[in-house]
Structures are given as C-alpha cells and as structure tokens.
Amino acid sequence: MNKIIALAFAGFLMAGSAFAADPAVKSVESINKEKAALAGKEIAAQGKVVKVNNGIMQRNFVHVQDGTGDATTNNLIVTSKQTAAVGQTVKIVGKVTLNRDFGMGYSYPLLIEEAVITPVQ
Asked: What are the boundaries of the signal sequence (predicted)?
C-alpha cells in the first residue's frame, strides 16, 4: 500500500513539475510593451549583455538587449545575485517589477528582479 501511495505521489510531482518550467522566451521589445500585463509575473528573455554594474545594493544590474525595439523599448535591466560579462549572450528568467524606486536616484519604470542568468552557447 505504501508503495502505491509513493508511486502515485511521485507521478503527481512529475506532472506538477511541468508547471514549474521556465516561461516562454519573449523579446525585449514585447516585455517593454506588455509590461503592465506582465507585472508580478515571471518572464524569460534572451539577448546580449551591453552593460553590467556589479555589487550595487547587494545585487548586480545587468542590461540585456536582443535587437528588438526602439530607444524606449530595446533594453531590459535585470537584477540578480549572478552576473555576466559585457558581450555575452544570456538567457534571463525573473520577475517583472514596475516603478521600482530604490531612492538616491535609482528609479526604474521596468525592472526584471531576482533573475537567474544562464549563458547561451
């Protein structure tokens, strides 16, 4: 009986793991344009790192672009415990936060927070 319950529970966990999969990769432009609808949700994006500021307020700020968008929609600013090098192509998965104000001039209309940064080969 315990084996049956254990197998049923394992099957439930495996079926449930599909819900924990990474979200579909979106373009940088679409995340910027859809930011109101994406607020509080986890997103994924892929692009080239164009700027990095490490160790600010106990996090790293990584700027990612993928060639989509214009001057107002072509950049994502990502905060993470991880970092990346300028020029590196990365995938990021993190939570969309709007109007984040850290004070002292650090204010962001769109920020991807607590991101996991993965290098792309």
From this structure: 1-20
